[in-house]
Amino acid sequence: MPIRIKLARSPKEIDDALWLRHEVFVIEDGKFGGKPVPGHRLVDHFDAFPSVYHVVAYEHTEPVATMRLVKDSDAGLPVDELYDFTDYRRLAVADLPSLGRDWAERSAPVFGSAGMLAIRGPWRRRRDVIRAMFRMAATVCQGYGASHVVVVVNYETAGMYRRLGFSELCEKIWNEEIGNFVIPLAGTTQQFIGWALGDLPDTALSSFQDSFERLVLRSGEVVFNEGDIGEHAYVVESGEIRISRKRDGDQELTLAHLGRGHLFGELALLDDLPRAASATALVDCELMTLDRRSFEHQLHEHPERARRLFKVFAARMRSMDELAMVLAFAHPSQRLEFALEAARKQAAPDRSEPSVLVFRGGPRELALMAAVDEQLTRDYLETLAAGGRVSYSERHISFSGGRTAAA
Hints:
By secondary structure, the protein is of the alpha+beta class. The protein has helices at 11-28, 86-91, 101-104, 127-143, 158-163, 189-197, 292-301, 306-329, 332-346, 363-370, 374-386; strands at 3-7, 52-59, 62-71, 111-119, 148-154, 167-168, 173-175, 180-188, 213-217, 222-224, 232-238, 241-247, 251-258, 263-264, 278-281, 285-291, 348-349, 356-359, 391-392, 397-400. The protein contains 11 helices and 20 strands. The strands form 3 sheets. Strands 1, 2, 3, 4, 5, 6, 7, 8, 9, 11, 14 and 16 form a 12-stranded mixed beta sheet that branches. Strands 10-15-12-13 form a 4-stranded antiparallel beta sheet. Strands 17-18-20-19 form a 4-stranded antiparallel beta sheet, covered by helices on one side. Mean pLDDT is 85; it is low at 402-407.
């Protein structure tokens, strides 16, 4: 079942985060004496501050993981109770000129901390969920305006934080309360975001990154079904998504294969109409999602963010009009040419040979896209392959040098 990772906003979601901490730290791990506390909620005074943020992961409605993020205030940060960050706070001023124009003009950095990572036992081996939790944490830190993030972690997990862009501030130190060695680490939010988003292609929703949530799926799991009422748009962070719709009873027509950086489902941000197609994970996937409420709030606060998205809407509608005309009136060979060109546009560079574009689908997928007989599609591909225009297998179609079928 897909796992949704979001910023807790409602009282119920915040309560789920506090319950999760108690369930993991006290009940499962036996910390804090291993005895349930009244109310089965693990809380400290920082949870009362307006500058605290809880990231929560749900499998359907069941809370499975949480993390707390705190923006610095006069009361300090939770990690200050475990390590003295005074020297790092002073030295961090030197980072500001490298963080961009907005920070170069400031005289003091803004700090945040990450901690209270609690993952219930059955989900602790889900590295994809843990990775998505930290990516969500990075965008939250960016959203609330932190220039630097500090953490204190069990020394066994320090390697993971180094991979996220953090640097150790000292050797491991013993903490009596935790009963383990800990290591303080720190880094800029820019480094954290660099790890989280990496080389993700720019999309029409890139300016909404500070409002994204995340969805983690296993191969074969459904993002949404044709006919569902949607409230989210999606960007593929990793993996591959198939967009399809029903045709002639149970037959499915493949509309698109989407990979890293592709946007889909965006019309749900504007209307309450049913989904016109289904979206399914072809492999394990991680998606970034934007819900309609956050979208509308951001448009009110930053109306300039809408321009690129509306251009996408217009282009998508023109493309669908063209597809409808082709499927309704074109000869099968013309439909195949149209579908192959669509496949080429969806293809991604081969990792071992970047000059070759690879579409993650074979003859059957192309036949569904073109709404023609599969054997006719195989004959068509065989002719193109003989002429050196494409190569194909049951699962891939490759285009050398990005050439089209008509080239």
